[in-house]
Design brief:
The protein has 42 helices and two strands. One of its GO terms (molecular function) is RNA binding.
């Protein structure tokens, strides 16, 4: 999503002076850097904007007051229990169990020992951390038993500073149990007899649905409560069958940086999705229905003023983003998404061109408020990504066309413009956007540190094959390279985001400093390399015009190596140019093979080299075979190049490499030019 990026309060021990910090959505690293540069500038919102935001926040507070609830309090944990839990934590940290059965027996004994105190433990600062560790090594049955113990207390636990973390971890683990139940054909009504003979234990599907029923009447208040909001987001992920990955792209959506770092310090490992795990999980139909029910509760049953108030509420806003993003791509999902969009944007779907001038002005004023608001702008980013084509076109033509530069230069709204451009639907829209952005606009973006807008234009023009020449020419002009002869410095200037005048005025020592490479500059160059040869030649020629020693140093840097990889791997670059680059690297393949960035370049060179060049590279590697075999990256390159086979059975190696080339040519004929090698490979080497 891009991404909702909300903060969550960490579980530091509370004291009399400490108050809970309000949660707040955050942009990625790029926005964080730019906002730091803007700290001393005056507020970007006008007085009218601020009045609108204040009004909506008051509405959100009124909604919270109507659905007011108390956080859980079940008494203090006895001293004996605290001491016992310290022992449990030490055992869990040591992980000294001899077998899986020993671990299961230990977990069973802990649950038996604390029976009846589950609620107290979940709401205790230190015990809640231990509970999370315990839950992560519990099996499906044990998780069901524990969740059953929390039955009927969902709302106060969700709203509790410590118990909310326990609930979030429990729900995340419950997703896999539900997946197993569905795959094994377990019915939601197929219960298990409890071990103590006191009744039946509900399936995990029923337990999750029961939890949803508990929060349904008060979901509007919960999503604006600083501790409960994150648990509700996790619940939405589970209902839609999306796996929670707390360390991947979902990291900012479900757990704050403070919370993540705190858990790491306390050795409470976050839930990480392995490469072998599927991203989606099986869920019963009842889960999809419940997700629609909760969406309806918020999007349809609530009045429009309440919905709009939540869209600028820093805690509730990410939940609204998820409701838009997680809808299924079917008729029901699109309908729910459309209804929510309509209510968020003042009837933009049902009343495209309102005759009522006041309504038209209110809608425009609300949009202007959202796009400049640090919270509301996140929601607009999601809206331009998921909106139906007609709504996207309406937003662009009515509110943004003619204002791309103005909003693109704003420290907040420029992120909305990036998403708008990146998700353009038609080539005509890209052409209109590029036509609006002159070379002076490009230069202004570079000067004010907003290169993300330019990168988005490049990506959109590549994706929809529109206005590629205009984009490159205006970018070159923005760098001060109106003359063709000046463009030999394009790669140097672009990767540093410096104009030609600025670049040439630097002393030679500073020009050779590769630490000034900029991530956005690297991405811009990589984007241009996806364009046809006529456009990407500005990057290729400027790279080849560098001194060989400088060009080689690019291969050892994270940003520079990506550009070199893009040049070598591009199907839009002629073979003659690639051969020249490979020839320039002769004598350096061994050192590149042992570098974490250079090794990727060696792999790319090998993938495009002809048999004659491969033999030259192989002979260079053979001379240093022992040195490479002792290196963790070098041995991978030896395996990729099949150096062992090259030494022992040269003719077989030649036939193998020729066969690989024939296969690549065959797939290129079938799939077109865009044939990519896998990013990660499993190496099995005898070295």
């Amino acid at each position: 999503m891009g991404k909702s990026r909300s903060k969550r309060v960490s579980r530091r021990r509370p004291n009399n002076k400490e108050t809970a910090d309000p949660t707040e959505p955050q942009h990625g690293e790029e926005q964080q850097q730019q906002q730091e540069q803007q700290e001393q500038q005056p507020s970007v919102a006008t007085d009218t904007d601020q009045q609108q935001i204040d009004t909506q926040l008051l509405n959100a507070q009124a909604l919270f007051d109507r659905q007011h609830f108390q956080a859980a309090h079940y008494g203090e944990v006895p001293e004996e229990m605290l001491g016992y839990f310290k022992f449990v934590e030490s055992k869990l940290d040591e992980q000294s169990f001899e077998s899986a059965e020993d671990q299961r027996l230990f977990v069973d004994n802990v649950y038996a020992e604390v029976e009846g105190n589950e609620l107290r433990l979940a709401t205790n600062y230190s015990c809640s951390l231990v509970l999370e560790k315990l839950l992560k090594i519990s099996d499906g049955f044990q998780l069901r038993v524990f969740m059953d113990k929390l039955s009927g207390c969902t709302i106060p636990l969700f709203a509790h500073r410590f118990a909310s973390h326990v609930c979030q971890t429990l729900l995340t683990l419950a997703a896999d149990v539900v997946d197993q139940e569905v795959s094994q054909g377990v019915s939601p009504t197929k219960n298990t007899k409890s071990e103590d003979g006191q009744g039946v234990l509900l399936t995990m599907q029923e337990l999750v649905l029961e939890m949803c029923q508990d929060i349904k009447p008060m979901v509007g208040g919960l999503i604006s409560q600083q501790f409960a909001s994150h648990v509700v987001r996790t619940l939405l992920f589970i209902l839609t069958g999306k796996r929670v990955d707390e360390t991947g792209e979902d990291k900012g959506k479900l757990r704050t940086k403070k919370s993540f770092e705190y858990k790491s310090q306390k050795n409470a490992a976050s839930i990480k999705m392995s490469q072998k795990q599927k991203k989606t999980l099986l869920v019963p139909r009842s889960f999809k229905d419940m997700f629609r029910t909760l969406t309806k509760e918020l999007a349809v049953e609530s009045d429009e003023a309440a919905i709009r108030s939540l869209s600028v509420h820093r805690v509730a806003n990410p939940v609204i983003q998820l409701l838009l993003e997680l809808q299924d791509d079917d008729e029901s999902g699109r309908q729910a998404q459309t209804v929510l969009l309509d209510r968020l944007l003042w009837g933009i779907v049902t009343d495209v061109n309102p005759t009522d001038e006041r309504k038209r002005d209110d809608r425009k004023s609300w949009f202007q408020t959202l796009i400049r608001d640090k919270v509301g702008s996140h929601l607009l980013e999601v809206i331009v990504k998921v909106a139906p084509d007609a709504v996207y076109d309406q937003l662009y033509k009515t509110y943004l066309a003619g204002n791309l530069e103005k909003f693109g230069l704003n420290p907040v709204s420029n992120f909305v413009i990036q998403q708008l451009i990146s998700h353009a639907r038609t080539p005509a829209q890209v052409e209109a956007m590029v036509s609006e952005m002159s070379a002076k606009s490009f230069a202004a973006m570079l000067k004010t540190g907003k290169p993300g807008v330019l990168r988005s234009l490049i990506d959109a023009s590549v994706k929809l094959k529109s206005s590629e020449k205009k984009v490159v020419d205006r970018l070159a002009e923005a760098f001060g390279m109106s003359d063709v002869n000046q463009r030999k410095h394009f790669a140097d200037c672009a990767i540093r985001l410096r104009t030609l005048e600025n670049w040439t005025s630097l002393p030679e020592q500073e020009q050779n400093n590769l630490r000034n490479f900029h991530l956005q500059g690297s991405l811009i160059l990589q984007g241009i390399m996806k364009m046809p040869e006529e456009q990407n030649s500005i990057v290729v020629n400027s790279y080849l015009s560098m001194k060989p020693a400088i060009a080689l140093r690019w291969c050892y840097t994270p940003m520079g190596s990506r550009v070199v990889e893009a040049i070598i791997a591009s199907n839009q670059v002629i073979t003659k140019v690639k051969k020249k680059i490979l020839r320039n690297l002769m004598g350096d393949y061994v050192s590149l093979a042992k570098d974490k960035f250079g090794s990727h370049i060696v792999e790319n060179c090998w993938a495009v080299a002809d048999i004659e060049t491969k033999e030259k590279i192989a002979r260079e590697l053979v001379k240093h075979e022992y040195d490479l075999s002792e290196h963790h990256l070098g041995k991978c390159i030896l395996w990729t190049c099949k150096i062992d086979l090259f030494k022992r059975r040269y003719e077989e190696w030649v036939e193998r490499e020729k066969g690989m080339d024939r296969k690549k040519d065959m797939f290129k004929d079938i799939l077109g030019d865009d044939v990519k090698m896998p990013k990660k490979r499993q190496y099995k080497s005898s070295y």
